[in-house]
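[Q] Does anyone have a clean structure-token version of this?
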Amino acid sequence: MNFIKKYLLYIFLPFISIVINSCTIGERSDIKNHDVTGKLHKIHRNLYVRKDTKISMVEHNSHDFLDTTFIIPEDSDTILFKTEDVSLHTLAKELNSKDAKFLRLSVKSATRSYFYRTKTIAKLPQDSYISVAYLCNHSGIVIKRFGAIKVHQFKVISKEQISYDMDQPMIFINRPTPTEKGSVYLDFILINQLITDAGNMIRITIDGKQFYTDKWVPLEILGLKTGRHKISVQIVNKDDEPLDNIFSRDTREFDLN
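[A] Here you go.
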């Protein structure tokens, strides 16, 4: 039954994407109820900010690389690596896109997080993991097309590890990419989660400043100073409450020179 549901979603997702991306996102009537300390302000199209800040964001124009509204993991058996040597090539095989310039791979367990840019062998401790292998264009933006993103569950050393629910909503941050003009591209991968202006949203926290978006598109962050910065993304419901699973949030730190 799950396979049939996923198959039907694969068929209809492109049509859902066309409908959503053709809509004009206006002011939400309920979004102001999120904040108990002040109102949220719409700053750009589908972007909202919790309070006044010198940091701002705009939607990055890369719709040529958006053919779907979220990714559904393919039905496959859990991969077992019998030693700590994990083949990243195995986790990234069959990725394809004519626009691809870079390969990236994010690996997470309940307590660990790793990021790779090659298909070599990685040494990982005994545990259960979720991996997301994906392709990026020349600007480092995730190519949001079927075939350009692969999601796997795998275990290291022993198969007697916890198994994750592969139907749960998940989000993974792509590596923040500084631009020549001093801004930073922020992008992420959505799995099993459709976000809209009437339902769940993505809460983005940059150095303690909170923003919200209801669309899966890359963002350009403006106004960051040089130095180390921390970005987190989290799927929240319409009442600004986080979803109750460990993969519905992700955090990454980076340096801006």
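[Q] Thanks! Anything notable?
[A] Residues 1-39 have pLDDT under 50 and may be disordered.
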